[in-house]
Amino acid sequence: MKIINLSDQPSIIQQYLKEIRDVRIQNDSLRFRRNLERMGEYIAYEISKTLNYRPTKAKTPLGVADLFKIDEKIVLSTILRAGLPFHQGFLNTFDLAENAFVSAYRKYKDALKFDIFIEYIASPKLDGKTLIITDPMLATGGSMELAYGALLTKGKPKKVIIASIISSQPAINYMNEKFSDDVVLWTATIDPELDEHSYIVPGLGDVGDLAYGEKL
């Protein structure tokens, strides 16, 4: 798996990252969701530079302009519910893309141990397409592995891109073993460790709760 860490070069993405981490700011759920969305837009833009394009033309009121358009069929996928604002940012950028959704959740055996289950999937055919899977937090990598496996039941994509905001180093180590070399992970930053509950440290807390309210 190829890793592209966007924090290697300072950009406006780092300002949004600072705001979603900051406990003085992140409890404004509207602002939190919008920052996730904006990060999705800017990361999608960075990814767009690596895609294939073909020449096209546009007729204007005064003539004809030579332009380019994406020459790939894109499917945007996310893992519910935390991934929705981040996914929306990608959809704002790749507005002609098809969409797929996977529900994955942790079922705890006790206070520290859990299994991950896939409960729901809705996806178009993926054969020959570019699959972009968005998940704001890659903690263990387990949810991403299972979501990817579920999506592959809908076809074989030509290209696979994973996009995250914060990835833990343990998740990257795990995914390097589970994903093939041609999969590319784009992440806004990499945090060093997980706590005993498998939350990313320093991380930012529970993205779903911060975006949509605490769950039972």
Write the layout of secondary structure elements.
Blueprint: E1 2-5, H1 12-21, H2 29-48, E2 53-60, E3 63-70, E4 74-80, H3 84-93, E5 98-108, E6 114-122, E7 130-134, E8 137-138, H4 142-151, E9 159-168, H5 169-178, E10 184-191, E11 193-194, E12 200-201, H6 207-212
Parallel strand pairs: 1-10, 4-5, 4-7, 7-9, 8-9, 9-10
Antiparallel strand pairs: 2-3, 5-6, 11-12
Helix pairs in contact: 1-2, 2-3
Description:
The protein has 216 residues and is an alpha/beta fold. The protein has one domain: Rossmann fold (3-Layer(aba) Sandwich), CATH 3.40.50. It has 6 helices and 12 strands. It has helices at 12-21, 29-48, 84-93, 142-151, 169-178, 207-212; strands at 2-5, 53-60, 63-70, 74-80, 98-108, 114-122, 130-134, 137-138, 159-168, 184-191, 193-194, 200-201. Strands 1, 4, 5, 6, 7, 8, 9 and 10 form an 8-stranded mixed beta sheet that branches. Strand 5 and strand 6 form a beta hairpin. Helix 1 (12-21) runs antiparallel to helix 2 and helix 2 (29-48) packs across helix 3 (84-93). The longest helix is centred in the N-terminal third of the chain and has 20 residues, at 29-48. The model has no long low-confidence stretch (mean pLDDT 94).
